[in-house]
Design brief:
The protein is mainly alpha-helical and 157 residues long. The protein is 80% helix and 0% strand. It has one domain.
C-alpha cells in the first residue's frame, strides 16, 4: 500500500513539476512582452519630449520617472545616457536599446530623433515577435510541461 501511495505522490509531483515548468515559460514570455511595451512607451515619451517640448536630458528623465515609475528606469543614473534597458530582454535586444540610450544627449536633435525613430521601429518588430512567442507559449508550454510530466510518470511506474 505504501509503495502505491509513494508512486502516486511521485506521479503527481512529476505532473506538477512539468506544469510548473510550462507556467514559468509562459510567465517569462509575458515579462518579455511587457518589457518591450514599457520600452516602446519610454522611447516614445523621450522622442516627444525632445521633438515637441525641447526638454533637456535631466528633465526628461525626471518626468519619465514621475510618470512611469519602472524599476529599470529608476535604477539608472541621472542622465538619459545612463539608462539601462530591462534585463529580461535577450542580449541582442538589450544591446540595441543600450546603444540607443548611450547616444542620447550626445548629438543634435535631428540625429537623436532619427536614432529614436530607428529604436521605436526595432521595438515594434521585437514586440510583434514577442507577442507571437507569448501566444505560442500560452498554447504550447503548459501542455508540453504536462506531457513531460506524464512521460516522467511512465518512467517512475
Amino acid at each position: 500500500m505504501s509503495g502505491g501511495v509513494l508512486r502516486l505522490a511521485g506521479a503527481l509531483l512529476a505532473l506538477s513539476a512539468g506544469y510548473g515548468w510550462g507556467t514559468a515559460r509562459v510567465e517569462q514570455a509575458r515579462r518579455h512582452t511587457q518589457a518591450l511595451d514599457e520600452m516602446g512607451r519610454v522611447l516614445d515619451f523621450i522622442r516627444a519630449a525632445i521633438l515637441y517640448r525641447e526638454m533637456d536630458s535631466a528633465e526628461i528623465l525626471h518626468q519619465l520617472r514621475a510618470q512611469m515609475p519602472l524599476a529599470w528606469l529608476c535604477e539608472s543614473g541621472d542622465a538619459l545616457c545612463t539608462v539601462h534597458p530591462p534585463t529580461v530582454l535577450p542580449p541582442c535586444q538589450y544591446a540595441v536599446f543600450a546603444e540607443c540610450f548611450a547616444g542620447l544627449g550626445r548629438c543634435g536633435t535631428r540625429e537623436t530623433v532619427r536614432r529614436l525613430d530607428y529604436c521605436l521601429a526595432r521595438c515594434a518588430e521585437f514586440r510583434a515577435c514577442a507577442g507571437r512567442e507569448e501566444e505560442k507559449a500560452k498554447k504550447l508550454y503548459r501542455q508540453a510541461g504536462l506531457c513531460l510530466g506524464a512521460l516522467a510518470v511512465l518512467f517512475l511506474l
